[in-house]
Structure formats: C-alpha cells, structure tokens
Amino acid sequence: xxxxxxVYKTIKNKIxxxxxxxxYKLPSKRTLADISGCSVITIExxxxxxxxxxxxxxxxxxxxxxxxxxxxxxxxxxxTLATLKYVEDDISDLRSDFExxxxxxxxxxxxxxxxxxxxxxxxxxxxxxxxNAIADxxxxxxxxxxEPERIIIGSGAEQLYQNVVQILGRDRIYGIExxxxxxxxxxxxxxxxxxxxxxxxxxxxEDKKICDADVLHVTPFHSYPTGVTTSISKRYEYxxxxxxxxxxxxxxxxxxxxxxxxxxESLYSLDSRSRVIYINTFSKSISPAMRMGYMILPEKLLNExxxxxxxxxxxxxxxEQYILxxxxxxxxxxxxxNRVRRKMKQN
Length: 347
Fold this sequence. Notes:
Elements: H1 3-17, H2 29-36, H3 40-53, E1 56-59, E2 63-66, H4 100-114, H5 128-142, E3 151-154, H6 157-168, E4 173-178, H7 182-190, E5 194-199, E6 215-218, H8 232-241, E7 247-251, H9 267-270, E8 276-281, E9 293-296, H10 302-309, H11 318-329, H12 332-346
Parallel strand pairs: 4-5, 4-6, 6-7, 7-8
Antiparallel strand pairs: 1-2, 3-9, 8-9
Helix pairs in contact: 1-3, 2-3, 4-11, 5-11, 6-7, 6-10
C-alpha cells in the first residue's frame, strides 16, 4: 500500500470513529511528515484526498480542520473500524490420495512451455488442447468416441446444467430422479425450468410419470443419494424413451472409480440416435477445487448452442485448461485413477 494512502486511511478512520471531532485541527504538513517519517509531498497527497472527499477543510493561513459531516455517526458502524474478524477456509475435503506434487510439476511445465500464450482469451467452447485431450482420454480409457468439436468446457456441473436448459429451453419438462443430488433440482428451479420428480427403484427410475417429461436427467452410474447403478435393461429403456425430440442428460459423476473390471457402458456409448447429452466433471476425480467440467452435445444441437450461447465467454481460465490438458496427455490422470481404484479394491 502506498504511504500516502496509509496516511489518508489513518486520518479518515480517526475522523469516522470520532477520535478527531469536528473542527479538530490537523498537524501541519511538515509536522505530520516528520511524525510519519515521510516526505511533505506524501502528506500533501493524503490531505488532498481528504479534501476532495470532504473529510477536512482548509482554512487560509490557519491549516487543515476536520469538516462537519451531517449524519456521519448515525450512518457509520464504527465497531468494525479497529479490527477485522478474519475467516478461515474449510479444507476438510482435501484429497489424501491425490499426488499434488505431480500437479505442481505439470503447472511448472505448462508455464515454462507456453508462457505468454496462456494469457489469450479462451474460445467459447474451451481451448482446443483440452477438448482434444478429453476426447483422447474418453476413447482410450472409457471406449467413448466423442469428436472434440462437440465437447464444451465449463466451470463445473452446475454451469453445464444451466447451459443445457438455455439450449433446450425452459418450456420443456425436465424429469429428475427422486431423490437426487440437491443441486440438480436447485439449478433447474433457478433457471425457471419445469420439473417432474421421478421415483427411483432398485434398477433406476420406476415411475410412469416419466412419460410426462421431455428431458430426462439421470445419473446411471451411481445415483446420489440412493447409490443405485442403473441396470443395462433400464438403460435401454431410457434410450427407447428418447424419441420425438426428447433428450437424455447423462450425468456421469463419479464414473471414473468403477469397480471392478471395466467401466459400465455409458448411455452415451449405447446411444445410436444422438439423443444423449453427456456431462462429467473433475471435481470428484481430482479435487472439489477443480471447478472444471465438460459436456458432449449431439451434433444436431451444436447450431442451437452457437445461436444461444455462442457469444458467451468460456468461464474456465486458459492456464487451468492447459494444465489439465497436460495432466491428461502425460498419462498422470489415468495413473491417478488406477492408483485410487487399486486402493479402493484393497479396502
């Protein structure tokens, strides 16, 4: 903080607190400079700011005095001027199984290799380097084919839910699992979308009201809080439901930690009619602080996305996108997932 601003803040706070009352005579510029251990020019700047804001007045051949400010003490909470009550972060959700040194090493590598390139504006759908890396990862690790042009980067699942509503429209009826992750319902309500709650059974949704929905939001891998994993027959039931302009939002949260063997086939992989919008994030697989996710849009919705959301900026910083892309391309992400899965299997 500049010295003149420190002087300004000190005097202003004393005026507000009443320590310097109305008509109180301030020290001369030279005297205050000697007391504060700074130059007369510094004091002139501080007094100039106080004059401009009306806290003090200058009287010719007399000096500076505290100005009369009507209503000052009635409209100021002076109890907070002396000290601040600092808050603390809750880091109880810090991942104990994530090798943070690898992430920091990747960060240094990206900064060294890309430098000033990390300060360009991200394309609307996200940086190509990350979209390409995600496409390669999905094909290699999950057996899912997703063209990078259909991958959209966003700052977490909640923003992507919002994007889906903005693309498909608020006039549709969105069917959600009951019970479900509370933020799903909260986002749809905040967006003004119509929802219908669909009762969950042992294999997935078992509610005839599913016919009332135009869009179905499901978490087939591991529904929260029920823990239900949708059976293959129920998955095909969902897909057969998605006709006549209906869409399925596949929320694949937590799917990286499949146990045992190979991952359960996603609705996206089973879909032959391009009716599934796939959403996933890195909040569970890497860290809750990783506010980064992606969705894969059916090709038929790309024009609608460009028309409705094409002018909005990507909300994820470029540097974070490049770091995550390098983390995936280097194989560190998959090694991390395999390490966690082995640990889960041992437990």
